[in-house]
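for the recovery benchmark. tokens below, seq after
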């Protein structure tokens, strides 16, 4: 007997949860984040009241575990370095040291963003006939914009690359006000916007539609904390605009504290992500 798809959930063109009947009977439920992060789906056999988890094969599980550890570690270290850089900018000796710490933290954010994208690219495939997950051939890149998890991870990674332009430019000395706003502030705004859109898509994925509170769900806490960090980064970026008339920031205190608290959010999200693994 072939597979009969029963119910798809998600938002717009994106499917985040799918329920169907595999050929051996019963009911199988696939969730995009659960398959990507924990390499599993849930199956309820015919006549059984409780569902059980069915994991992917050992190859897929090992891949997802390694990629999750890399992404979690990178965001934890990157967020910590950003918080340290912001603290030094607010209370410490000067901007040069902070700029180098930010730049180093940005490299970890790049790593975390790409590891997150690799998780999507190599997520185990759903075998609808058998009601199980199987490993995909390893790939360093796939273009899959119809998947909400891929789009969210791609925008996150793109945001980290744009932040890299901002951080590299901040190392330059003797920039005019116009150059500061064009090379430092503008990429900062673009990166923050990409982070916010990525975080919204991640919330839609976790909530299977309209974002809402899911306090019992570790994945929701990770996504929500990261999105709070993105909001605080945006507040910091808005306050970091250099006024052409005076050559000073709109509000240096808000810029530094927004970066510091936003970075702490990403560090906490990274630490929580260590627990969201196969």
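predicted aa per position
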């Amino acid at each position: 007997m072939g597979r009969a798809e029963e119910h798809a959930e998600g938002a717009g063109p994106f499917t985040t949860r799918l329920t169907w009947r595999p050929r051996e009977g019963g009911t199988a439920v696939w969730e995009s984040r659960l398959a990507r992060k924990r390499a599993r789906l849930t199956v309820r056999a015919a006549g059984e009241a409780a569902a059980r988890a069915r994991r992917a094969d050992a190859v897929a599980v090992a891949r997802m575990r390694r990629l999750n550890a890399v992404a979690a570690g990178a965001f934890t270290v990157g967020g910590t370095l950003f918080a340290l850089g912001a603290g030094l900018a607010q209370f410490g000796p000067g901007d040069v040291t902070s700029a180098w710490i930010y730049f180093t933290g940005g490299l970890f954010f790049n790593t975390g963003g790409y590891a997150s994208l690799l998780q999507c690219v190599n997520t185990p495939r759903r075998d609808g006939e058998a009601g199980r997950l199987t490993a995909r051939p390893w790939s360093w890149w796939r273009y899959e914009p119809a998947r909400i998890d891929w789009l969210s991870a791609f925008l996150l990674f793109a945001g980290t690359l744009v932040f890299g332009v901002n951080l590299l430019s901040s190392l330059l000395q003797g920039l005019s006000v116009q150059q500061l706003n064009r090379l430092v502030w503008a990429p900062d705004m673009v990166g923050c916007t990409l982070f916010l859109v990525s975080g919204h898509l991640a919330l839609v994925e976790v909530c299977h539609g309209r974002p809402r509170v899911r306090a019992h769900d570790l994945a929701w806490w990770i996504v929500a904390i990261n999105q709070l960090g993105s909001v605080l980064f945006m507040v910091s970026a808005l306050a970091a605009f250099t006024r052409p008339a005076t050559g000073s920031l709109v509000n240096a205190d808000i810029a530094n504290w927004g970066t510091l608290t936003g970075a702490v959010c990403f560090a906490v999200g990274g630490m929580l992500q260590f627990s969201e693994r196969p």
